[in-house]
């Protein structure tokens, strides 16, 4: 007979045999051969006379009439014809099956259907995953288990993910519930979304001394990652806002009173953009510049209200 099995499962090749059974004719050894070797002389994949039989191959019959054979964790190279052979204690008692059994090995397959068109999976989409195996001939009686990142999450042939979000991203596989060693190929669900949780921050603080330095940093979560960051400053009602930077960090090397004000950033990818809340900078103290003449060298002296000065070429 032809037998079908899913890769990773266990399969039993049913077998029975008859022979002249009497006190002088007793079965002393049993063997199973595969088509890649000689069915009569071996080597055999199982031989009761050998101590080197692979644990995946197990003779589960007896030496009377049952010659059934089990293969665990079947692999693609187990495909092929199998034949039973036995020997009795009589010199002429060597018998080999005529037709044998043909074993076919198939992989579990998964079908992914995006209910609202093709393209990248985005937040709000719905996805249907279906587990298929060629051995059931369309019979829906097989029980399946679905896994996400190695953890069992659902039972059944189909897994329906509706209104997906970033939490649904991960690697999905299915297996036949009664055969733990079976597993389909990995299906990666990568849910894309626009920028989220966009925020702006100031380092070292939003209140800084004049002539010190400060850095504004914009952060956001997005898939694919943020493509563009833009920093804006709110000027006034007439002017509105002006763009002051196009990187995720905005550096002020020497803070002056002109830095005082309200800022926010915008993060953008192909699915949209999001603005941060407002970051308000306050510059403490004032400074101004006056020319000072020293022989042969002209310096500018920066003086600020907190006291002290420095010479600048």
Principal-axes geometry comes out as rod-shaped
Return residue spans where pLDDT drops below 50 for at least 5 consecutive residues: 290-294, 297-313
Largest sheet: 6 strands, mixed
Count of extended strands: 29
CATH class descriptor name of the largest domain: Mainly Beta
Structural class: mainly beta
Task: List the secondary-structure elements in sequence, H or E.
Answer: EEEEEEEEEEEEEEEEEEEEEEEEEEEEE
Q: Into which percent range does the helicity of residues fall? A: under 10%
Oligomer: single chain
Radius of gyration: 38 Å
How many domain units?
3
Distance between the termini: 97 Å
- How large is the share of residues in beta strands? over 45%
Mean pLDDT over the residues = 87
> Count of DSSP helices?
0
Any idea of the CATH topology of the largest domain? Answer: Immunoglobulin-like
- Assign the CATH architecture of the largest domain: Sandwich
The CATH fourth-level homologous superfamily of the largest domain = Immunoglobulins
InterPro entries: Ig-like_dom, Ig-like_dom_sf, Ig-like_fold, Ig_sub, Ig_sub2
Organism: Seriola lalandi dorsalis
Protein name: Ig-like domain-containing protein
